[in-house]
Every structure is written in C-alpha cells, then in structure tokens.
C-alpha cells in the first residue's frame, strides 16, 4: 500500500499539529455555543475524530453522507444524499467537518440543505482545501492545508475505496491509476 505513494504531502505529525491548532481556535470560537459537529462521511471520519479530541468544550457529533464521487478521481457532477442527520440543527451552532473541498459541489449541497433548517450558525472546517478546481463559491472558515491540484489519498481520503487508513496524506503513483 505504501509503495503506491509517489510523495507524502502531509505526515502524521503535520496533520496532528494542524488539527491541534484548529481545535484550539474552535475551542475559543465556540466556548459557550455547544456546537453540533457534523462529519461528512466517509472521508472526514478520521479527521473529525481527531479534531473533536482537540476541542475542549461541550460539543455533539452527527454524520451526513453526501456523495459526488464514484470510484473515479473526477466528480460525477451529481450530488446524492445517502444519509441525513439524526439530530435537529434548529437553533444550533453547526460546524461541518470535511476532508477536502475540491469543486465545492458537496459543500454547496450541504449548505443548501441546512439553509432551510434554522441553524443559529453554520461554519465549515476542512483538513484540505484545493481551491484550484473550485466551481462553487464556498470558502472554509477553518482549513488545515491548501493542497496543490493533485488527487490525494490517505487519512480518510480514498481511491477506489482504499488508502483511507494511511496515517498521512500523499499523492498516488500514476501507474496505480493506469491499472484501473
Ligand atoms: P467536491 O464536491 O468539493 O468536488 O469534492 C468533495 C469530495 O470529493 C471530498 O469530500 C472527497 O471525498 C472527494 N475528493 C475531492 N478531491 C479529492 C482528492 O484529491 N482525493 C480524494 N481521495 N478525494 C477527493
Ligand atoms: Mg467527502
Ligand atoms: Mg472518495
């Protein structure tokens, strides 16, 4: 699995450090707000679980699954709701947690859905921001790293369902795509 990686962009230590920094900022910003932290499945699950451990105030967790990618490295252009939230966001301070914002389609869809549900506030925290390919006007309130225009895997991000369990974020070797 590690042999399929051309270059490590962010090590386990880099990710831990940036997550701690984001958590500290979020702790300050949400001190009296008891935020509802929403993890966008599946990619953000590793980041969210590490991030909430750096948030030192009351918060709740919920999950939403919105899919715009099949197994390919390019978005299908269609955004589907696979799993909605269990909790109500009404009157709540919502913090959406994403693995990466690429075209912005997924986030735009989530924002649109939530806009009808009377949250007190909605903000976005993403581990990775890839602004080069943005199609929609969406900007994260908190971002770990700005990534180059490359398809990355690891720490939650997959290619054909694999590589999510890599502890770092890296770029796949081109020959790995050629095999598929
Ligand atoms: P968007 O809707 O912003 O184009 O993409 C959002 C979703 O597409 C992310 O949550 C992620 O699951 C997937 N995605 C976008 N860019 C990448 C990438 O470079 N690598 C991987 N593995 N997934 C990506
Ligand atoms: Mg995702
Ligand atoms: Mg994916």
From TrEMBL:
Its EC number is 2.4.2.8. It comes from the Bacteria. It is found in: Cytoplasm. Keywords: Cytoplasm, Glycosyltransferase, Magnesium, Metal-binding, Nucleotide-binding, Purine salvage, Transferase. InterPro entries: HGPRT, Hxn_phspho_trans, PRTase-like, PRTase_dom. Belongs to the purine/pyrimidine phosphoribosyltransferase family. This is Hypoxanthine phosphoribosyltransferase. Coiled coil: none annotated.
